[in-house]
Amino acid sequence: MVSEDLKLRILRILKESRNGVTQSVLARALGVSKSYLSTVIRELEKQGIVYRVRLGNSYIVKLSQQPLPREERPRRLSLGIVWSSEYLFLASFAKMLRDRMGIELQVRVYPSALQATLALVEGEVDAVLSPFVSQVYAYLLTRRLTIVGGGARGGAAIYAIPNAKSVVITSSELSTMDLCRALAIRKGVVDAETTRYFHHPEEAVAMAKMRKVGYLVVWHPLMEDMERMGMKRVAMCDEFSEIEYCCTLALSRSLDSDIMERIARVFSESIELFKRKAHLYLDWYSAITGIDISILKRALNVYSYEPYIDLKKVMTMVKAMSVEVPDVRQLIPDAILKTM
Predict the structure, then answer these.
(1) Are both 82 and 216 inside the same structural domain?
(2) PROSITE patterns of this UniProt entry (predicted)?
(3) End position of a domain, from candidates 207, 239, 271
(4) Fewest C-beta atoms under 10 Å: which of 189, 284, 305, 334?
């Protein structure tokens, strides 16, 4: 049984160090073995009292419930999202953000990946759930964001339009759909001569109805519109091994680094909770986006969820995008990256 006295000693040390203490230093300070300390720390983690951040081969232990000075404590977090059925975990995130950090989540819905991501770099929102692809381009141009959390994979497909008037392929711009489009052309999955972009979900549906393009790359729930109109599914975008993520969580670099780290932790834990109780969170998301609950229930079978950012997956996607990110650890800090 873990000593309550040892737990109190750990908490006293952590309260004196806002930046946390490495697990090895804690073991030496307390005069206990590293393995025994790991057992105690895991128990405190389960209780939501502390959390660990991986840094190289070490772990830094921090207080998760440590109150911020009032002047540093944000009262709300404005989050931009792309209109879709993807972020079904948001109600879980909102609740944990309020309970753990006293922050109210305010959600703004945008019609495209580009608009949502621009809202972050222009200071309209504090955070954004948008395609990893969009966030990388925005970072390279502005250096105003940091990616701090995983998200969803899947939920996008390429459709061929029967009796189309052209062999144009269309997708949203600088997004997962755009990367999917580029890979489909590169691999010979589609025979498209030119590319055209749409900027609103309704524009994509109109293009399909009028058969103005030969192929569309769309996300859920637009996929259901394509199916109803009799469009032929050519491929799911996650069939391309290069597409490891759809959307990820990015925060404005104007936020304090400690706050960013804590938000990242809450975000990852909220996805883990959502994965265990997904059906509990659909009403709230339906009210935010206007998407019918019956569609959201089907979306549960379309997306898979990854709470963390994996370095190997990041590099795979960056390579597929044919861009160079010279400072990946500025885009995604070591404390956030899942390297193992």
Answers:
(1) no
(2) HTH_CROC1
(3) 239
(4) 334
Please provide the size of the chain in residues. 340
Instruction: Find the range with the poorest average confidence among 63-67, 99-103, 287-291, 327-331.
Output: 63-67
Q: For the sheet containing 156-160, what is the strand order? A: 195-197, 169-171, 215-219, 156-160, 232-236
CATH number of the domain residue 200 falls in = 3.40.190.10
pTM: 0.76
Q: Tell whether 28 and 87 lie within a shared domain.
A: no
| Mean pLDDT within 122-141 | 94
Task: State the CATH number of the domain containing residue 41.
Answer: 1.10.10.10
Q: What percent of the chain has pLDDT over 70?
A: 92
Domain boundary pick from 205, 239, 273: 239
Distance of CA 200 to the CA centre of its chain: 21
On the 0-12 / 13-18 / 19+ scale of CB atoms within 10 A, 224 is middle
Rounded Cα–Cα distance for residues 199 and 204 (Å) = 8
Minimal CA–CA distance to 159: which of 208, 210, 221, 86?
Answer: 208
> Which pLDDT value is given to residue 2?
56
Instruction: Give the residue-averaged pLDDT of 90-99.
Output: 92
- Residues 61-95 as b/e (b if ≥16 CB within 10 A, e otherwise) read bbbbeeebeeeeebeebbbbbbbbbbbbbbbbbbb
Quickly state the pLDDT bin for 340 (edges 50, 70, 90). very low
Q: Does residue 338 carry a pLDDT above 60?
A: no
Helix (H) or strand (E) holding 113, with range, is helix 113-121
Domain residue limits at 31:
4-63
Residue 22 neighbours by CB under 8 Å, 6+ apart: 55, 58, 59, 60, 61
